[in-house]
Amino acid sequence: MANREEPILIGALDIGSSKVSAIVCTLDEEGRPRVLGTGQRQSRGVKRGFVTDMEATEVAVREAVEQAERMSSQNIEDVWASYGAGGLSSDLATVEVEIGGHQVEPTDVEELLQSGREAVDRDGQVVLHANPALYTIDDVQGVRSPVGMHASRLGVDIHVIAADEAPLRNVDLTIRQAHLGVRAIVASPVAAALACLSPEERDLGVALVELGAEVTNVSLHAGGMLVGLRSIPIGAKDITDDIAAAFGVRRRDAERIKCFHGSAMTSPRDNHEVVEALPIGAEDGSEPLRISRAQLMTVIRQRVERTTAEVEAALKDMGFVKPVGGQVVLTGGGAELKNIADYMQGVLGRAVRVGRPRAITGLPDAHSGPAFSSLVGLALLASQGSGGDIRDLALPRSKPGPQATGMFSRLMTAIKGGR
Ligand SMILES: Nc1ncnc2c1ncn2[C@@H]1O[C@H](COP(=O)(O)OP(=O)(O)OP(=O)(O)O)[C@@H](O)[C@H]1O
Ligand SMILES: [Mg+2]
């Protein structure tokens, strides 16, 4: 049990399709997280980001958290957890109040936000984040801070991220069954963005592509917040499975081949290099298969091309088109595939870089790769508190259905000073 003399403890937990990772942090004098311990287990019972076998996942959660607790010699009571499966939605809710021409006071803003609390049915979705984005004064959009200005009407666009209720509850229940409290469940792209995008990038407009094991989350960030997201049920594990199926080797060998010999770019040397692996079911000592790198590349490229095409379609669908769209940042374990950023840069025709989580004190090397962006982002978010969220807020939807295309351009226009 924590007592007042003990340091503030933050627990973060990322339940992915391939791994469950946990981190225990404290805060330094400046309020920045300092890592005390980390833990990781192979994920079980998670498919495409959804918990499908609660008991199996619970064991992985318990073991990963216990490992982080042991390393830090601390016990945590609750965690900040990520949610990165499909079924996330992002939109803007607009609310407006009459001011009557006087100067806007902080209480007017509070009243405005309060009026956004009127509960509406979100059709089986749970609100994860509700951030006041940009204010509107009469017909002028894009006002960041309205206090002190004269207005007849004051409005605000509240950015809402919601998740389908059932899969979210399963994550919540799994964590609770592992005897941990749930402080907050955070949309994975929100956490990952905080860890591997600079504040300037998030302000100017950037796309973040998190290539996980079984899910690829594409999100747009502008004006310092997430303004659109799409989830694609394809990930780096699909490359492993393709290799295993194409050459008849075990998944474990296919994974090793992908990580050590795989690449997203072909090279003239590919015909001369050979990779060896035992066929499935082969006895020890039997003749290994000889796979040329060119054959391997054909298999990898097919999956990478398909994934990139889906990413491109998602970006277009959300309105991330030139000239407003900026660069693309790739993260998640799949971003470790050799030359993936170069390949995507060629196809997408815009700058692409690999994003690793920002260094936080005490983060071990083993947890500093792009696969840990969401985990590190959770710790950063937790260290900042709620970050302007309107907690427990149920907001009216302006229109049903995804509206991200309009939202991105609208925000970009507003941020850049247009109407
Ligand atoms: N060097 C590498 N080359 C190619 N792929 C890699 C490399 N290193 C790791 N990966 C892949 O990254 C994937 C794991 O990524 P990550 O840890 O982000 O997924 P996850 O969070 O468990 O799953 P998800 O977010 O999809 O639910 C694995 O499929 C792994 O094969
Ligand atoms: Mg993940």
Automatic annotation (TrEMBL):
<keyword id="KW-0472">Membrane</keyword>
<keyword id="KW-1003">Cell membrane</keyword>
<keyword id="KW-0131">Cell cycle</keyword>
<comment type="similarity">
    <text>Belongs to the FtsA/MreB family.</text>
</comment>
<keyword id="KW-0132">Cell division</keyword>
<dbReference type="InterPro" id="IPR043129">
    <property type="entry name" value="ATPase_NBD"/>
</dbReference>
<dbReference type="InterPro" id="IPR003494">
    <property type="entry name" value="SHS2_FtsA"/>
</dbReference>
<comment type="subunit">
    <text>Self-interacts. Interacts with FtsZ.</text>
</comment>
<dbReference type="Pfam" id="PF02491">
    <property type="entry name" value="SHS2_FTSA"/>
</dbReference>
<comment type="function">
    <text>Cell division protein that is involved in the assembly of the Z ring. May serve as a membrane anchor for the Z ring.</text>
</comment>
<dbReference type="GO" id="GO:0051301">
    <property type="term" value="P:cell division"/>
</dbReference>
<dbReference type="Pfam" id="PF14450">
    <property type="entry name" value="FtsA"/>
</dbReference>
<protein>
    <recommendedName>
        <fullName>Cell division protein FtsA</fullName>
    </recommendedName>
</protein>
<feature type="domain" description="SHS2">
    <location>
        <begin position="10"/>
        <end position="196"/>
    </location>
</feature>
<dbReference type="InterPro" id="IPR050696">
    <property type="entry name" value="FtsA/MreB"/>
</dbReference>
<dbReference type="InterPro" id="IPR020823">
    <property type="entry name" value="Cell_div_FtsA"/>
</dbReference>
